[in-house]
Write a structure and sequence with these properties.
This protein has 21 helices and 10 strands. It is an alpha/beta fold and 450 residues long. The chain binds zinc ion. Zinc ion is lined by residues 133-134, 181, 257, 261, 281, 285.
Length: 450
């Protein structure tokens, strides 16, 4: 399939986005697209100083030439995040002007426009300036509200315009972050397979194939991505956009994230900073992704055909004791009830666990083959990240391996989504895997801490 065919097909399954244009020097498409989708409406460009310089100003001139009334809002700060006060600012702006937003920027500006558009029961047009996240076309916006980073449900933009010449010139770290965000879909896919096996979240074929069938190809040129080659950047951007469409089709972020992302959410929720700066979503996700690849490496070395299901079922804790464990762990956390809520919703009783583990034991040879085909080894993923310029060691985002090890139990408990760590808990191999990954011979050996 050509890029165009893939996009046409994906747009059919995408529930929110109707127009996706990607190509070189295509900003001139903005006014026409705006006119068609929002006839008779006025526009307001939302940008920051950088995105104004690289694309916003040009979009503004094009809108004026097309005689579409267009205002401008520029964020004055050089570093700003998707905080609730910015939501209020843009909400007020849309109230006052009655306009439709044109988001010119990447993750933060897009998420701010996405949620505020939803507040006004309208959509918006997004002009992408970096291949840094999969969130352009995802269902939901990640916003910090009362100190907690939360995903607010809201539709993706009706139109996304991606000028690859502009995107290819974005800062290298942003593109590397986007590459890692896309690479996370590798272990996330394998964890979705586990949830599918357990019957908790069955794989949705159209969402799965849309992304997973092309994922290897879109990750295959890290050198090109690092060099800013437009073809490689185009493939990366397409992969990120397809991730968004897959989330729209699934009405959930399951196709695009699992435990790999929870390490990042933990760091967000605890206000982690390195050298005084919040770390990018993609950079944090890079470390979560590598960690999950390391877990899969150790998991796939095991022979579970002899798994003692009876013994595991006998040892399986009651819901009450799992809730106590979660309560204790999250006691001093910013959201102390999170663990209890999530573990309660994904708890299985003894019979459920027996069924799940019997499947694992009986199907192990095929499962092992299937998971190995899906997940890259830690070594391969680390090599790709080194080439592309994404973090290959937690120290690069200011997290020690010991700290990373301490995050693992939170990652297991902080989302109702079934993951590899849940399987490991049920099969009594959780402690073993943690010791292997962080032990003397492990990928994240704490004794050889950098
Ligand atoms: Zn992500």
């Amino acid at each position: 399939m050509t890029t165009e065919e893939r996009i046409t097909n994906a747009l059919k399954s995408a529930t929110d986005t109707k127009v996706f244009k990607m190509g070189k020097n295509i900003l001139h498409l903005v006014p026409q697209t705006f006119k068609e989708l929002f006839p008779g409406r006025t526009a307001i460009i939302v940008a920051d100083k950088n995105t104004w310089r690289v694309a916003g100003e040009q979009v503004f001139e094009l809108m004026q030439k097309s005689s579409i009334e267009c205002g401008v809002f520029l964020f004055p700060e050089s570093e700003f995040h998707a905080d609730w006060d910015h939501i209020q600012t843009i909400d007020a702006l849309l109230d006052q002007t009655g306009s439709v937003a044109i988001s010119v920027g990447s993750g933060t500006i897009n998420d701010l426009c996405k949620l505020t558009a939803h507040h006004h029961h309208q959509s918006y047009l997004s002009v992408a300036t970096a291949a840094s996240v999969d969130g352009y076309t995802s269902f939901g916006a990640s916003i910090t509200y009362e100190g907690l980073k939360q995903t607010f449900e809201c539709p993706a933009p009706i139109a996304l315009i991606a000028d690859i010449d502009i995107i290819a010139k974005a800062p290298k770290e942003m593109t590397a972050a986007g590459y890692a965000d896309l690479a996370a879909k590798i272990p996330a896919g394998a964890e979705w397979m586990i949830a599918d096996l357990f019957g908790t979240e069955p794989i949705i074929p159209e969402a799965w194939h849309m992304l997973q069938d092309v994922l290897d190809e879109m990750l295959s040129d890290p050198e090109g991505v690092a060099a800013g080659k437009t073809e490689a950047i185009g493939a990366l951007f397409e992969g990120l956009t397809l991730s968004g469409f897959a989330m729209q089709a699934a009405r959930s972020s399951r196709p695009a994230s699992c435990t790999d992302h929870l390490f990042s959410h933990f760091l967000d929720m605890t206000g982690h900073r390195f050298k005084g700066k919040l770390q990018s979503h993609g950079f944090q996700v890079a470390i979560g992704t590598l960690t999950m690849c390391a877990f899969f490496d150790e998991f796939l070395k095991l022979d579970l055909t002899k798994l003692d299901v009876d013994k595991c079922v006998e040892k399986w804790p009651s819901l009450e004791s799992e809730q106590k464990r979660a309560e204790k762990l999250f006691r001093n956390f910013v959201n102390p009830k999170l663990g209890v809520a999530e573990i309660t919703s994904k708890y299985s009783d003894k019979e459920g666990v027996r069924e799940q583990l019997t499947k694992v034991r009986n199907e192990w040879p095929q499962l092992k083959k299937k998971y190995r085909q899906q997940v890259y080894t830690f070594e391969k993923m680390q090599r790709l990240f080194k080439i592309v310029g994404a973090p290959s060691d937690p120290s690069e985002i200011g997290v020690s391996r010991q700290k990373l090890r301490e995050i693992v139990p939170y990652a297991q408990l902080m989302r109702a989504r079934i993951n590899l760590l849940d399987l490991a808990k049920r099969a009594e191999i959780y402690d073993y895997l943690v010791d292997k990954v962080f032990g003397p011979e492990g990928s994240w050996s704490t004794s050889s801490e950098k």
